[in-house]
Amino acid sequence: MYTESIERVQRFKLALRMGIPVFMLAGILLFSVLMQYFEKIPYHFIVIVVGVLAVAVYFQFYLIYRGFKERVTENITHTFTRDYFQKLFLQHKARHTCTLILFTIQNFADINERLGYRKGDRILYTAAQQIDFFLTDRGVKKPIISHFKGGTFLLLLDGNIDEYRILFEHFLVRMGSAVLDGVEIKGCGAIIDTETSGEFEQLVERLFELQAYSSLGKILVEDDKTDLNTLENEVLDAIRSSRLSMRAQEIDITTGRFFELTFKLIDSSGHLIHQNRFFPIVLRLGLIAPYMQSVLAKTYEIASTYPQYRFALEIPAELLRQRDFSYTVTADLTLRSIQNLIFVLQEKEYFSNIKRFEEILQSYRHMGIGIALDGYGSNHTTLLYLKDLHVDFIRFEGSFGKKFEDERYRALIEGLHVSAKRLGVKTWLRMIEDQKSVQAAKAMGIDLLSGNILGTIAPIETLIRNES
């Protein structure tokens, strides 16, 4: 790249400025000494001296250049660089079990946007100082800290995870909600040790996965000691072999019968791999398309076997927008004449080419496939999509069903429900906990209800057989 070539030129110029004066002085000194002992300096001796000096100059320049290239700490936080931190991790892991802690300032992007990047840099430096002070104060000698990226730090501690559970809990209490340099920060973290895996990249990815499921102040500790290499291999093998466990939960609806399908992978020993374990791996390894093709293949079988019922399943919205995947799904649905499926979509980021997205969704709706948007009430993207897209269902975020008895939640549900109904969209409330909430939701006019109080999750054949 052009930027790299400029950097090399600048380093070489700096090396010249540092090295040339030294070698000029050395050359003058050597010449003056030789002139004292020789009236005439032999020609071959001059050639040898010049050659030695040339090699010495090159070697000196090389050392200076390499010295600038290898950095131990980064400029903003003065913590270890990511590469040097990984080098230290490998050294410590070779001697004993190590624990990694991931800490992220969740509102760092907002701080940069509101207060400017220079203020953000000062917040990062102050955060690094606070982390170092906390660990030192708790008896950790020479804390190893790295600014990993953005508002994220990595900490390396000697020993297994059990030695640092209490320290980690106190750390999140201290740093989960703190004021640094006059600015309030919101932090969360996760912890793991090398008994789970010896690979640095796998451990870091798993830490981010754990943190992705966390909320402010929630303690996330990796207690599953399954080797991550083994887990990845099991996930890969399960997807290649289409080993899936499908379960269903009946949805309370006034017309017809409606089931929501959920899927888990099955490992080589016949044990289930839960979604919160395998789905991040699927995303990281780029296996979302083959995984969803296996899920859809199993769904097609059920939908074809029971055409009188409707079946809902979650599917990533970005997959439906991929031409090859969408073409395959459309061809399969047409070939099998399936019209009793509902695709439940959830997205955190608004897709800007809304016209194309609308065309794709309408093509599925014309085939008889229902479209549901998930995360209603908590995800602003869903609200934006409701404004721009024509869909069949809106599903409330789970906490609304759990806290339906709370007057504030109920008021919000009623307002959002009225808005959806005026747009001709049916509403779906899930995670209903008790019969009183069921009756109140029906009185409000909610179209679809789901929760353990209404029906347990079981194999679809079992649910249909029990009904019969």
Summarize the entry for a quick read.
The protein has 468 residues and is α/β, with parallel strands linked by helices. The chain is 53% helix and 18% strand. The protein folds into three domains: 2-69, no CATH class; 82-225, Reverse transcriptase/Diguanylate cyclase domain (Alpha-Beta Plaits, 2-Layer Sandwich); 242-467, TIM Barrel, CATH 3.20.20.
Written overview of the protein:
With 468 residues, the protein is an alpha/beta fold. The chain has 3 domains: 68 residues, no CATH class; 144 residues, Alpha-Beta Plaits, CATH 3.30.70.270; 226 residues, EAL domain (TIM Barrel, Alpha-Beta Barrel). Helices cover 53% and strands 18% of the residues.
Q: What is the CATH topology descriptor of the largest domain?
A: TIM Barrel
CA gyration radius, whole angstroms? 31 Å
Arithmetic mean pLDDT: 84
Q: What would the principal axes of the Cα set say about the shape?
A: elongated
Terminal Cα separation, in Å? 68 Å
SS elements, strand count: 14
**Share in helix:** 40-55%
Strand content: 15-25%
Give the number of helices.
18
Name the quaternary structure. Answer: single chain
- CATH architecture group name of the largest domain: Alpha-Beta Barrel
How many separate domains? 3
> What structural class do the secondary elements suggest?
alpha/beta
CATH class of the largest domain: Alpha Beta
Low-confidence stretches: 215-219
CATH superfamily of the largest domain, called what? EAL domain
Largest sheet: 9 strands, mixed
